[in-house]
Description:
Low-confidence stretches: none
Oligomer: single chain
Number of helices: 18
Amino acid sequence: MNDIRVRKSTFCKLVCLLCFLTNIGQTPFLIDNYQTRYIVIPLWLAFVIICILKNHVISFWETRSIFLLFTLFCIIYGIGAMFIDNYMASSLPYVIVLSMFILFTGIMTGKNLERDDIQSINTAFIWSSVIVCVDTFLTYVYGNSLDSRIYSYDSKNSVSQILLTAWILIPLFKFDKVIPKVKRIIYLSVFILLTVTLLGLKSRATLIGIPIIIAWWLLHGNLNRRLRNILILGLFGLAIFLVINPDFTNNIFYNVVLGGRDINDINDLSSGRFIEWQSFMDDFLSAPIFGHGRMKRESIILTSLLEFGIIGGGIILYMAVWPIIWAVRYVGKSDDKYLMISSIALVYIVNGIFEQLAPFGPGVKCYYLWFVIGILVSVKGREYINSLEYK
């Protein structure tokens, strides 16, 4: 029994290291100087080989709905590519395959993990995100004027989503009263740094997720009372601060919320998205069933329907919202992991309204959702089987 516990502990540390190194690969230093995909992809392939050698082969029955939809999409894509040249040029199939690879890797991973191990993985994700945050803050945010229309960092949308994920995990798991006071102060400081960096990056497609998540938490009936009180007091204090500091409020509103854009020009305000969205219906109706192939828009909803039509696009959109559907159906609102999965899934889906590849990508931008939900699928499945054995 002790040997089994040691092996499981070692395996958990390996998973934590994998997430840690994956996030570290997104630091501006590595992105600017190296091709991080050549570092991250071999890590995941090596990890999958380890899972297979440990006989953690996935049983696709555990996620039969999304696996069948993924298979159906691959068939539609393969057939469509023979008749529509632009199918092969689309970026969506690559990130979908990558996300499904991460999901199925997570399911294999969860076969040798316990529920509490997710807490350790969350911690590894948070602290590696802090390193990314510090590098991003010092390199691109610090000293950069908020009133500049030029974004400080070209990869702001990807790195912001990783930082926002850590921003979500800290209140849910690190503000608990059982955590020592010193650690709570440290995590609070990290939380503030993440908030400042997210504001400085001005990724509005990501920032819109913050008020949505706060509302989601407050509406959640089983939210930790301590966290609920902190949120309410924090929002009340922020409201007072903004009222008594109108210059600061205007600066945040015009330069962060509006991104320094002309409020009277909808297209400028939407960073060019309005013109793309305006032409959607005409383009869609010209090929509504199977789509055009590559014809991207800054929205996964519009992009999937334009590129793959009602059939393929509908499958993609269901796969995009599948994590939150699974959380609602199988996790249960009384489970603390429900709020974690549903919150991350929600902000990734909201991000997808304004970005063409979220919640699947690009790169490792959205990997954590698919990896952790895969782990939780295995853990919940094992708990269910054990409960039947005890009956």
